[in-house]
Amino acid sequence: MPKPLMHLAQFLVHGPTYHSLAMWRHPKTAAAGFDWSRPELYQHIARVCERGKFDMVFFADLNYVSDTFTGSLAPALRNATQAPEHDPIPLLSFMAAATTHIGLGATYSVSHQHPFHAARLWATLDHLTRGRAGWNVVTTLNHNQSANYGEEMRPTDERYDRAHEFMEVCRKLWASWDEGAVVMDRAGGVFADPEKVHRIEHEGRFFRSRGPLNVVRSAYGGPAILQAGTSGKGRDFAARYADAVFAIQPYLAGARELYEDIKRGVVAAGRRPQDCKLLFGVQPIVGASRAEAAERQAEHNELVPLEGGLAILSGHLDFDLATLPLDTIMAHRTEPKLQRMQTRYRSMTGELLTLRQVALNHGQSVGLPQMVGTPADIADQLEAYFDAVGGDGFMISPIHSPGAIEEFVDLVVPELQRRGRFRRDYAGTTQRDHLLQDT
């Protein structure tokens, strides 16, 4: 009986650092001479990942420069802790023009937008990419983001209640043009049948929208919906809407619990377990030998300053970690804001980590486990994680760019294919096709 196939996504940021704060300083990034702000780099990455038969390339995105650590912008700017970040949405069409199959996903927050704008934007991208667009639906992460829009940050429950209604309005708008509404009767002088285009007349707790959308119905069913929240509210949202969930969980028992809980929620929402894939983040470091891979890991990790790790972790927690001693055990802290990222507070074997350890890990990989070794070693580690957790695949995060992505595609992907753990070709052409391809 064939083993289940893994799904692979490539993690990106439209900025100088992704998960790794060492990326912009890494000698291989510098030697490549690529400018992170130029679109040609991302077209190149998309082509490489399509050659590797990845499900998607995916952009994270934040709309702020954090001052959470020490109350100053300086640590974030000094260490490029996800600052700057340019808007990734314009890149999706640019990358679609250079590829034919690979999915193209990006984060787009619903916290400071109206559903009509989002529905129009993502319906247009669904058309332009021929069904390859994926929208990572998120709510505000940090008070700095809310302040940039002149608002106060809403409580978690309210943010997710608002997000549910946001998606409800988007779905109504996407469905406001019936199938066959566009008739293109040139002889009769009728472009669209008015009987098949409808107002939605939505009036809810958070939004009002009259409709209809002024984008025609997509043949691809609208963008694939992605999600990355693992709180109770986030899991509920994923179970109802998501085609894929991105998760960071270095602790294997925790990863399995999350996997099983999300799948139970998907079934409870009236969907099949396979309709929502979980992709766990990993940071591969590949070498021709184990010794070379270990050297590469040490070189990379030593480039990450403690201040940078504390700054990015503070921003993600929205809590100033300068107020805590570096030797505090993070899992023992009781502050409410420190509860949302418990997945980062343990090692892969379950060891409890200090603030210093968590911050350095966060600066190196935002808590993603580093998988280090030869291509065969990396494949072994991916298989072991996959089989222990139950599936469904991985979000790959590089330590330098370009170069690390190409190494994974050229060295590790063929090893996974040889073992029958990853596709040799695409079975379809859309983002949902790729996510549903399991054998």
Account of the protein in words:
It is a single chain. 39% of the residues lie in helices and 14% in strands. It has 439 residues and is of the alpha/beta class. The protein has a single domain (7-436), classed as Alpha-Beta Barrel (TIM Barrel). The protein has an eight-stranded parallel barrel with strand order 1-2-3-4-9-10-11-13, surrounded by eight helices. It is globular, with a radius of gyration of 22 Å.
Q: Secondary-structure blueprint of this entry?
A:
Layout: E1 7-13, H1 27-32, H2 39-51, E2 56-60, H3 74-79, H4 89-96, E3 103-109, H5 115-128, E4 133-138, H6 143-148, H7 156-174, E5 182-185, E6 190-192, E7 202-203, E8 208-209, E9 224-227, H8 232-241, E10 244-247, H9 252-268, E11 277-286, H10 290-302, H11 306-317, H12 355-365, E12 370-373, H13 375-389, E13 393-396, H14 404-418, H15 431-436
Parallel strand pairs: 1-2, 1-13, 2-3, 3-4, 4-9, 9-10, 10-11, 11-12, 11-13
Antiparallel strand pairs: 5-6, 7-8
Helix pairs in contact: 2-4, 5-7, 7-8, 8-9, 11-12, 13-14
